């Protein structure tokens, strides 16, 4: 009887994953983004910073954009929900969280990729889902709960109001190159956000201007 040979099973194609190397590469990518910006960032530079070969990076990510999108996916807000039970308490905590070292690092990453967003649809989508949308959703939640408690009128434009602080904080960094800082966040809230919400403008005390560690 004739023996029919069958071809050997092809090895499954896939990106080998070593968690320790992945973490090192992601950390290096984030650090390189902050230092050099997206346009100057290179796979070679990330590999050097991570202490791995360029081929090791390319086996995991096919392009710089793909690496950056994965790096962005690891960056999470330090606080998902702010709910102290009052609008004033929520606003004070929102300012503190927005100016924490963790949030300032996220803002630096946002700034580093802004120049590439018009030509990188994948980055633009990740920017929206990882940075813009969560911040606006968190502030929207604060305002919706304040409306439900009767602290704000039902006719306020929550979507517009919720976008003010994230937009102005990012614009401040883009135009000055410096961290927005707690004093600026307080100015935005006291002079812009509160009046938009139909509340009196508020001046924060000088003792509240230091960024929490």
Automatic annotation (TrEMBL):
GO molecular-function terms, A-Z: DNA-binding transcription factor activity; transcription cis-regulatory region binding
> Region Disordered: which residues?
1-22
| First and last residue of the signal peptide | none
Q: Which Gene3D superfamilies does the UniProt record give?
A: Homeodomain-like (1.10.10.60), Tetracycline Repressor, domain 2 (1.10.357.10)
- Assigned keywords, A-Z: DNA-binding, Transcription, Transcription regulation
For this protein, the DNA-binding region equals 42-61
> According to the UniProt entry, which residue ranges have a biased composition of type Basic and acidic residues?
12-22
Please give the InterPro entries that the UniProt record associates with this protein. DNA-bd_HTH_TetR-type_CS (IPR023772), Homeodomain-like_sf (IPR009057), HTH-type_TetR-like_transc_reg (IPR050109), HTH_TetR (IPR001647), Tet_transcr_reg_TetR-rel_C_sf (IPR036271), TetR_C (IPR011075)
Residue stretches making up the HTH tetR-type domain: 19-79
| Matching PANTHER family | HTH-TYPE TRANSCRIPTIONAL REGULATOR RUTR, TETR-FAMILY TRANSCRIPTIONAL REGULATOR
The identity of this protein, by name, is: TetR/AcrR family transcriptional regulator
Organism annotation = Aeromicrobium ginsengisoli
